[in-house]
């Protein structure tokens, strides 16, 4: 469990990115932080592994104040996956995946063996292990990024818009893969995105953020969809338009679900 | 053209080649100045450059200094040092160290600075210490530029080391000076050819080294190679052509 207690982050130029945030991220669940740019979502994420230092307040992981820990040690115990894979271009895929275990002192051969298994986990062919990152497609690079994030078997996985830079088809594949991995591994995942569909798809808990890291609404996707807390939330999730404003029409004696424009999207099963 | 031939004839005259004060000995002196000065400059400038590149601190000062140092006339500097510490090899060596520092310094910090900030950020976020970020990420990725700095330092010094004779420091400048004084143009041109060839050979070696030190993954992704060895299996469309039908 990760807990923020009235955490504020003020950057040297005076911008308050996060203002007195209090938030609990339950263990073994996926919490998605969603909001537009400037909502402080990445700052919140990066405060968890101290890539950004809070200005005031407390952040605890399983009851332990992370500011009492050595930042390097803390980071090695937390998986981190970023948007542009962030792989080391001069190291082979396998060596990228073993980065953290090797830093932690695991024997190289052992780490490599584990890394090959991880490539299976993220759906990559083992033959890619000896490639360099630049020889892979964007989607494959992101998979390697996820494998690297999982390599030290961390309890927590931070994902900063990891699927933001790949095309929609690959993104959808990666999302399904992540859902599968999470079902198997049950990590505490903190996932940042600006895509509300992605948030609803992946999140057990969704935290919708406004400017300054203020929580506009927090809850399960169903809770947020069924009861938007404000106009801001309603607009952001698109509750009032398009494919979220669904109606039921009876056609040939069956309940057909149609969207705002009357286009059918499916049939209700009784 | 005759002068050039005379120059070559002078070079290959066995009487000029060997012995103390012969061409080989002078080449050795020229190279000693070059590598000695660059080595000393490297000890000073490379750690400093890496530190500046890694922390981003002192960058303006470094730019200013290396610009200023570059503008110093080597001959003037040499004479000042020779007046200060006397003739011999020390004054020229010191001059050449100062000559080499700007190239090495800027090569080192430019190399580190040119590394993609996202790569560095990711390395740090994985839990690398600052030292590991520098040695395992910034240094290998910045190596081509760093070696480029060493290369231009070496070339500058090898070309300028002919000045050493002004402080009675030997090296190939001795022949040039001699040739001028005694109007022995064969010697003058011969020695100039030797310096030029020396510089070109070093340039070639370093160009090769620089290529060699481009980290493998950085060249591996170049378009040609990706195309020639497709990573993803290609879908087979239509039926394969069968020969002999």
From TrEMBL, chain A:
Record key words, sorted: ATP-binding, Nucleotide-binding, Transport
Residue ranges constituting the ABC transporter domain according to the UniProt record: 2-237
Gene3D superfamilies associated with the record: P-loop containing nucleotide triphosphate hydrolases
InterPro entries noted in UniProt: AAA+_ATPase, ABC_transporter-like_ATP-bd, ABC_transporter-like_CS, P-loop_NTPase
UniProt-recorded Gene Ontology molecular function terms: ABC-type quaternary ammonium compound transporting activity; ATP binding; ATP hydrolysis activity
PROSITE patterns, sorted: ABC_TRANSPORTER_1 (PS00211), ABC_TRANSPORTER_2 (PS50893)
First-level EC class: translocase
Family: Belongs to the ABC transporter superfamily.
PANTHER family, sorted: OSMOPROTECTANT IMPORT ATP-BINDING PROTEIN OSMV
SUPFAM superfamilies (UniProt xref): P-loop containing nucleoside triphosphate hydrolases
Protein name in UniProt: ABC-type quaternary amine transporter
EC number in record: 7.6.2.9
Automatic annotation (TrEMBL), chain B:
GO cellular component: plasma membrane
Chief location bin: membrane
Transmembrane stretches, start-end: 31-52, 61-87, 93-112, 154-176, 188-209
Any GO BP: glycine betaine transport
Subcellular location: Cell membrane; Membrane
Residue ranges of domain ABC transmembrane type-1 in the record: 27-206
InterPro entries for the chain: ABC_transp_perm/SBD, MetI-like, MetI-like_sf
Keyword Kinase: no
Membrane topology: Multi-pass membrane protein
Pfam families cross-referenced by the UniProt entry: BPD_transp_1
Keyword annotations from UniProtKB, A to Z: Membrane, Transmembrane, Transmembrane helix, Transport
Family label: Belongs to the binding-protein-dependent transport system permease family.
Protein name: Glycine/betaine ABC transporter permease
Taxonomic source organism: Subtercola boreus
